[in-house]
Amino acid sequence: MPLAPMDRDSGVVWAAATVPARSTLIRFRWKYRDAGKSYAGRAAVRIAPPDSLRIDYAGPFNWGAGAAFVVGDTTVWADPEKNFRSLVPAVRMLWAGLGIVRPPAVGAAVFGIVSSPGVDSARIWRFVQGEDTLDYRLARGGARVLEAEWRRQGKVVARSRAELDVRAMPASARIDFPEGPARFEFTVGSVDTTVVFDSATWHRRR
Questions:
Q1: Global pTM?
Q2: All residues at 6 or more sequence positions from 64 whose CB lies less than 8 Å from its CB, including other chains
């Protein structure tokens, strides 16, 4: 459907509304598969508003354990880097899978529309940033769902779909990478919004 040009600030405000109001710890079970392999395990994500995230993950018996620290769209460190890049090739989609929208970049062209106003309304946004186009659709019907698609030069890089609970926290999500093809999906076991993180949280594991 056609999207109307919007002021960038309105896109920034909408994105900010998807960020948890306080530090949050999310624990989940994950699965990853592509044409050549399939893995599964557990992970914990620590989110410090407005833009910091640490993920710790491991397979069965702690096999393939790793961690990464992300600020905004940038991976500050990943240990081991190869494992994290393989598991999560697109940081923006990880944020979207957690129900969080990254704001449009400075200079981005912003478009949007509200479809079907009312209880079952959906909000659609498009952020065009250089070669990248990011589309978001937040549905507020019987199930609250955040969908995202990232295209580079018109080619789909990744798609995500996150089902959110009544608190707008993620309940489950999947992220697809068509070129692989590959899929990363997870089911949330618990969400803790009373945690306090110390400075060591953002340091490497070793």
A1: 0.91
A2: 39, 41, 57, 58, 83
